[in-house]
Amino acid sequence: MPNPIAFSIFGIDIRWYGVLIATGMILAAVITYVRAPRHGIERENILDIVLISIPVGIIGARAYYVIFSWDYYGAHPDQILNFRGGGLAIHGGLIFGLLAAWFVCRHKKISFINALDLALPTVALAQAIGRWGNYFNGEAHGGPTNLPWAITVDGIKVHPTFLYESIWCIIIFAVLILIDNKPHFAGKIACLYGILYSAERFCVEALRTDSLMIGPFKQAQVLSTVVILLCFAAYIYLKKKNVVLNR
């Protein structure tokens, strides 16, 4: 496995996990900032959303992971705030980050659906980059396989599920940006992101060996199923309203 430490500053080790997640977030924020005017949103408002939703999202991602791994963290409470050791659940980050963004949009009188259409393609890009942090941490991989692209963890060849998700998220980003560059009804991009990402996550989660659980079920698969159904329903409803953007 690769060295999880990217470099050291004044004796403090900086891990690839944090570097890659930060890189993904910064790139997503920059692209969203640049593209904001085509969605009728002032760029200064994007900065407000980013500065609030990203920290809240990180806290939510950690809280979500800790809650669904309480057997461990209940016995090791000193590790709850050990962000540097890994353990951020993307679903928790999305839920808390989107809630924070909703509050900002409501305060600023910005259309939340419009903001989602703007931001979610770049969220997929950030996920694609951040997933490589799992590779350097030796986590979020699948079970044994003899496929030629397998990676070796603890002497065993396994599915690089982080890679599968990274590739799919890049495809989601490219597809959604292409669609967003054409006229479409408000909420189309947001709904497609929810459907496409959740479908991928449901499939990839079946291969993973370190899934968070809800009883006998993998929580990511349960949540992905719920999100797909909700986004399909929202897609149909919003399409009927047919509020067209980007004319």
UniProtKB/TrEMBL annotation:
Membrane topology classification: Multi-pass membrane protein
Cross-referenced Pfam families: LGT
Ligand binding (a 1,2-diacyl-sn-glycero-3-phospho-(1'-sn-glycerol)): 131
Keywords for this protein: Cell membrane, Glycosyltransferase, Membrane, Transferase, Transmembrane, Transmembrane helix
Cellular location(s): Cell membrane
The enzyme's E.C. designation: 2.5.1.145
This protein's pathway: Protein modification; lipoprotein biosynthesis (diacylglyceryl transfer)
Top-rank taxon, per record: Bacteria
Transmembrane segments: 14-34, 46-68, 88-105, 162-179, 220-238
Primary localization class, coarse: membrane
Gene Ontology molecular function terms on file: glycosyltransferase activity
Keyword check for Cell membrane: yes
Enzyme class: transferase
Keyword Lipoprotein: no
Family: Belongs to the Lgt family.
Function: Catalyzes the transfer of the diacylglyceryl group from phosphatidylglycerol to the sulfhydryl group of the N-terminal cysteine of a prolipoprotein, the first step in the formation of mature lipoproteins.
Cross-referenced PANTHER family: PHOSPHATIDYLGLYCEROL--PROLIPOPROTEIN DIACYLGLYCERYL TRANSFERASE, PROLIPOPROTEIN DIACYLGLYCERYL TRANSFERASE
Name this protein carries in UniProt: Phosphatidylglycerol--prolipoprotein diacylglyceryl transferase
Species classification: Bacteria, Bacillati, Bacillota, Clostridia, Eubacteriales
